[in-house]
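quick one, two chains, predict together pls
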Amino acid sequence: MNPILITIVTLSAIGLLVAAILFLVAKKFKVEEDARIDQVEALLPGANCGGCGCAGCRDFATKLVSLDDFGDVQCPVGGGETMNKIAALLGKAATVQAPKVAVVRCNGSCENRPTVNDYDGFGSCKVKAALYSGDTACSYGCLGCGDCTRVCKFGAIGMDPESGLPVVDDTKCTGCGACAKACPKGIIEMRPKGLRGLRVVVLCNNRDKGAVARKACKAACIGCAKCAKVCTHEAIVVDNNLAYIDPQKCKLCTKCVDECPTGAIHKFNFPVRKAAAKPAVEPKPVSEPEPVVEVAPVLAEEPKPVVKPAPKPVVPKVEVVADDADSDDVIELDID
Amino acid sequence: MKNRTFTIGGVHPAEHKLAKDAPIEKFPIPAKVAISMAQHLGAPATPVVNKGDKVKVGQVIGTPTGFVSGFVHSSVSGTVTAVEPRADLAGNKVMHVCIDVEGDEFEQEIDCSDRIDREIKLSAEELLEKIKNAGIVGMGGATFPTHIKLAPPKDKKAEYLIINGSECEPYVTADDRLMREHPHEIVLGARIMARVLGVETVVLTVEENKPEAFEALSNATMRYVGFNVFRMKKKYPQGGEKQLIDAVTRRRVPSGGLPIDTGCVVQNVATAYAVYQAVQKNKPLIERVMTVTGQCLPEQKNYLVRIGTPLSAILDSVGGIPAESVKVVSGGPMMGKAVANLDATTQKGSSCLLVLTPEQTARTPEMVCIRCGRCTQACPMGLEPWLMNRLGRAGDTAALEENKIYDCIECGCCQFTCPSHIPLLDIVRTSKADVMKIIRSRAKK
């Protein structure tokens, strides 16, 4: 017989035999899984960010299916819409939480907060914080090595090379909280996004006495409590020489912003009136076409802001585009 | 006899013992001191003086908070000007007692004479109490309270007391000078600790690069039975507790275990000296020998410094920081920490003040791991730093724990030896902190 034919026949026979064994094994050891897990997973964003506290979207889906009541459980990326869809699918009730956004509570830019020593160690905030209090006189502020930018899976946070501080892009931030967990100084707070993104925040985390804080940073909260006095909604608490604005109570009257002697309180995304504009936050009036500044992460080679005219007027803000290739490079420098 | 050494790992940094011929000088008492309440491992002491109080040298100004903690004494006489958080060496805020110096009035019972008092009159319990009340901590750098080490759990028996005079760190010569100038006091301190522990055999270890110290200690121990002086090979980290036990007894401290599990207690020579001062002279730990060194300094010094002296005052005494120098390190170059704040003050564990030039501290850019395995060869704990680096960057705490990252002694041999200049120690140290946090939280449950 033709050797080619023999080969074909033999191989086919082996193939059939193995297929039969595999079929039987698959039947015998089949893992019964709730079909709803797959359906729920399909509804989830698939970011696997861990913002919900689970190991990934599938883990979260399994948890949701097993829960009788969702309670506080929430997918921060998908938000209320996703949770409602899942609740409808599973026939349960979802409590929708307000979407959150990361707020960097430090305004210690190079200009406001001069360095008092040079750090030449490994470029990681975690390592730097383990070694000492930081290269400025403020031991509470941003360390500027960009750990937060490296953990963001959505490219929503990047270092501004001008100020040396991280900048959050509200439109991309999903509120997963990865950056807040990565920050060794705990300066990133997850705050409710608020109506149209309007927020009033104390951009400082310094709990030193006023004189010490002011000496370290021009834009520090000195705990003078002027803001708390001017606030008519009792939204501001001054504790440990640091003011904190409760987002639940704040009615966005912005009186405190004008009252703060050091300019530590900032308002975000407010429509700009002609004279009252704060140049640092709102660079230009809304009516003009706005430049969208693309900023590469600070650790990338020669971070050079590329200014592009945007097609139509948008709410002015600094958009940060994390260059995937570069940021990967930074994280896994010698992992392999 | 062949020089002894530990069995695995180790590196040979250039020794640079520049200050070894500078005799110990008394550093003048500064006008103001600030004494930290966190000079020991464990909980910071609780200040017991208030602003405006008059204090004498040797008066208790801080009492222990909890089990692992210690007493803190005033190193000067004068008026307390403030009890407030101040930035320490690393810039972190720590409670300090600030004192304006007036005269130099000692507490009455303190004996300041140089007479060597050889007779040990007290019982073991009384001695231990005295050591505890003197606020003595491990002066090699770890600053673990000595009285806890000298009181091992009942089910464990100490067989050997090892007095560590290896001083394997480059540049540092404080222990060397102490051994050369005060060998009898050190040996007496060792005798006191041996009595507390009830051990018969005491081993003093000196590295081969300190022949004078070896000679001095050999002569001082001549008349005592059970005292041995071992000459050690020059190798870093010879003075590490676990390495020393290995070198002297060939016993291995079990992973995650304590030195007492092998029947050994290790104490530094400076600690032995402080114990002698505390027990025989009633002098609590208020001063220590500190090396001030660096190629860029005009003078190399070994000072007997009062605790709480500002670093800037010490540097001024040797002509201030030279213009070209960039980094001031507290401790040796291997395990010391860069000083972020020169207004910070000396502590019980400050063995050296090292001033380095930009050329000496220049960092070479990090390159990829070439898998040469040098870090694994150098690790004295038998760990795999390259693997820890990978796992640490990936945040895989479970695998890090499996690979026994908690055994790391943070000696820095891996980073010293890495041809790719990977900051292995930085990564391993932070990863170890993460893993320890997880282990501790698990223990609580």
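Residues 276-336 of chain A have pLDDT under 50 and may be disordered.
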